Amino acid sequence: MDALAGVEDLDIAPAGDTEGFISALDGAQVAVLPGLPRFYGPEVGSKIASSPDMAWVHLISAGYDGVAAAGWPPGVRFTHPGGALSGAVAEHAFALLAALSRQLDKAALGQTRQVWGKPYAQQATTLSGATLVVVGFGSIGRRVARLASGYDMTVIGVSRSGRPVDGYEVHPASDLLKVLPRADAVICALPYAEETRHMLDAQAFARFKPGAYFVNVGRGGVVDQAALIAALQSGALAGAGLDVTDPEPLPEGDPLWTAPNVLITPHYAAAGDREAAARIAEGLVENIRRFRAGEPLLNPLTPS
């Protein structure tokens, strides 16, 4: 809001809840909100689709689950915050992977019990020289790849298009099952959409290299959770680090809580980046300038 206040001739209508937001859309040309289901539901989607003046929606979250579920309003452009949140999410993904490979979750449990013992030490592995498959090779996935280079890991990217990225081997999503057997670890940074739902299913987990690790900082719905639990229980996976689950919040008593070798954080991978808000604001202000000038907007979001 501070950044927008410095933009000349901009009529700003802030809203604190869904009802107020829908009311504020009357006569608006631009809407700014997160794209998550709790913010962008059917009511909001319907109002945007029926607003004759609405031309552009800017999402301030990396996810756009709510937009995909509500349906993309025809004739309305969408943009996203680009890589503004990528650094924190990538670091969180690597923190989960490193914790699993070094058995830190088990060490932390021993600390809470005040037990000095290390029966799990022989299960510890190093990431150096390992092969990492990054599923979802957008801004977050490429930031993960940069971190992996510091561990001397071989990185293989998987994206919807398989578009080449300098310095990396990249495959289209259609090749996922062919690529998975090469991975010592898999980090998923996929957004949720109908075509990504349960992309990591029983068939995919069966293709994982025995003893591989799996980390998900994308969306819980891209994973068949029952298949993941089965892979953990069978020992096919060495462990899983999850910042996202399906559903969220994960209900008390859900079998994922007690699955072996699983480390769960409650969807806060994007938190803690001191500069993220400034980067989001800077990108929004630049896009307002471009919108007024009739120039192409930064970070367009293309409906799949």
Q: How would you describe this protein?
A:
The strands form 2 sheets. This protein has a 7-stranded parallel β-sheet with strand order 6-5-4-7-8-9-10. The chain has 11 helices and 10 strands. Helix 10 links the parallel strand 8 and strand 9. Helices cover 33% and strands 14% of the residues. It is an alpha/beta fold. It has 2 domains: 104 residues, Rossmann fold (3-Layer(aba) Sandwich); 179 residues, NAD(P)-binding Rossmann-like Domain (Rossmann fold). The protein starts with a helix and ends in an 11-residue tail after the last helix. The mean pLDDT is 96. The radius of gyration is 21 Å and the shape is elongated.
Q: What is the ordering of alpha helices and beta strands?
A: HHEHEHEHHEHEEHEHEHEEH
Task: Please name the fourth-level CATH homologous superfamily of the largest domain.
Answer: NAD(P)-binding Rossmann-like Domain
Report how far the terminal alpha carbons are from each other.
31 Å
| Low-pLDDT segments, ≥5 res | none
Counting helices, strands and paired strands, the structural category is: alpha/beta
Portion in helices:
25-40%
Beta-strand residue percentage: 5-15%
The name CATH uses for the topology of the largest domain is Rossmann fold
- At the first level of CATH, the class of the largest domain is Alpha Beta
What integer is the average pLDDT? Answer: 96
Strand adjacency order, main sheet: 6-5-4-7-8-9-10
Count of helical segments? 11
* Overall body shape: elongated
| Main beta sheet strand tally, sense and closure | 7 strands, parallel
What is the total tally of β strands?
A: 10
